[in-house]
Each structure stands twice: as C-alpha cells, then as structure tokens.
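Good morning N.,

You mentioned wanting to compare the apo and holo forms, so I went ahead and generated the holo version with zinc ion. This is what I fed in:
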Amino acid sequence: MGFEPTRRFRAPTRFQDEHLQPLGHLPLGALYCTPYGRGAMTFLHGPNACTCMLVLEEFREGNEMRRTGRIAVFFLGVAVLFTGTTVRAQTSPNMAHPVYYVQTRERAVALTFDVSWGDKMLPKVLAVLGSEKQPATFFLSGPWAKTHPQSVAAIRAAGGEIGSHGQAHVDLGDKLPSTIAENIRAADSILRSYTGSPLHFFRPPNGDWSPRLIEVAHTFGYETVIWSIDSRDWMNPGVTVIEQRVSNGVFPGAIILLHASDTCTQTDLALPAIIKDVRKQGYRLVTLGDLWQMGPAGRDDPRGSGHKPNLN
Ligand SMILES: [Zn+2]
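and this is what came out, ligand included:
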C-alpha cells in the first residue's frame, strides 16, 4: 500500500466522527483516513465558507485500496463556517452529493422543467399544465428570465415554482469556486427580482456538478438538485419515447426532468400522456417544494442502475 501518514496528532473532537478520522495535524495539510481513502486536507475559500477537500494519495475502489497515479481530489462534505473566531464543522459525506430524489413511500413525483431558450414552447407547456390543473417546478436560466419577463410572469401566474438554472449555461463542476459563485449569484439576483424571496433549488447547467459546486450553492442557500428520470425530450426522440421514458421510470419520490425551451418540439405533445399515465399508476405529480416536504433528500444516484430506491 505504501502510503503511511508521517505524523499522527490528535485532532480537535469537532472534526472527529465515524466518517473522518484525522491522522495528521490540523487544519491545512492534515492527513486523514476516511472510507474513501487517505490523503491530505486542503481548504478552498469561498465568500463566507470554506470547502474542505481531501487530496487523496490512496483511494478505495470496491474493497481494494489503490494508489492514485495522479493526485485525486475527493470532497468529504465538510463545511467549515468561520464566524469570528469560532470554527464549526459539519461532517456528513453524503451532503457532498446532489439531490436525485426524495426518500418517501408516498406515491408522488416532482414534475420539473428547465427553461433556457425561446418563448414558443413554454406557453404550450403552461397550457397543458393549466388544463390538467397540474403544478410544476421551473428551473430558469438567469439570462432567459431577464429577457422574458412576461414568460416568467406567466409561470408565476400559473402557480409554477421557480428554481435557478444558473447564469451561463456551461458545465460548472470543474470551475473555480469564484466562477461558480458568480454564476449562481448573477442568476439569483435576476430570479429574486421576480420572486421577491429566496429560492431553494439550483439545477446546474447540463446537470454537471461537483462537491465544490454543491458547497458553493449552499453558501447561497441553494440545494443542488439533479433528477431521477431524464426524459431527454430535448433530443426530440418522439412523443411516445418521451412519455414511456417518464412513465416507466417513476417511483415514489422521483424527480422528472423535462424542458420548456424552444429547442424541444415534442414536450408539450408528450405532456398530456405523461400526466395521464403517471396518474394512472396512482401517483400525484407535484412541485419539487411539495415533494421536499415528504421526506429526506435522496443523494445516491438511482439513474442507470435500474434500482428504484423507494420500491426496494
Ligand atoms: Zn439546461
């Protein structure tokens, strides 16, 4: 295995829990042994929080420890907030993952739409939702919201819940914390000018996330939300394909991803069948905010595994 920490010091108890066993000196460059592997702690400074990262020299793959050829950075979900001179640490590795679903046995699923382009598809989607008396959550791109005030007003008039889809529609996971923060902040100020109150949910562009992004989003009060069911409606694969992807994928607490941008030409046509089909399976379609009330966040990725978490 080769890697042995050269120094072992007792760490302050606030850093100790089952997930994080400090082996080295604190804070910077501290050596840790974790379920993920062993390495040194580093800090990334944000506006009012620090993100602790573990730079691993060994990592666990299955039951085996492997040495990293290059240095790998794994986030541990350690948020250290500096208030004056007090240091508070929360250690919950799972918090370093985004929300994919909600842990509930209730037969409810969240209906969510990302919107970043155009003004043709949205009214059609709103018309279907209106005629079905169906609430939904809309993740809006900042620039789109800024240039489409009437569309935003229409969403709000229809009772739609608004989340943030960020500013520039680019992958943010690998970006510097300052770049991520600027993206989130810019969209947040535009969206808040409409809502007049803080937003709760952030869906990163392209669903591209990293522990760093999740932590930065937290500093703005956002939960980072991905999805459990990807309709891939933006590829315009056909109304039936979209409908079946959704209705075959539902499970209690699932989050459905659709789009109401003009690049999508079939979403409004698939939507009536999706709503009918999902309801026929005994599910209620609700906003993300409503689903959020039904249980704790599901942060393990159920996509592609065929495993539907709340159905066993
Ligand atoms: Zn998008």
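Residues 114, 116, 165, 169, 205 surround zinc ion (CB under 6 Å).

Happy to go through it together on a call whenever suits you.

Best,
F.
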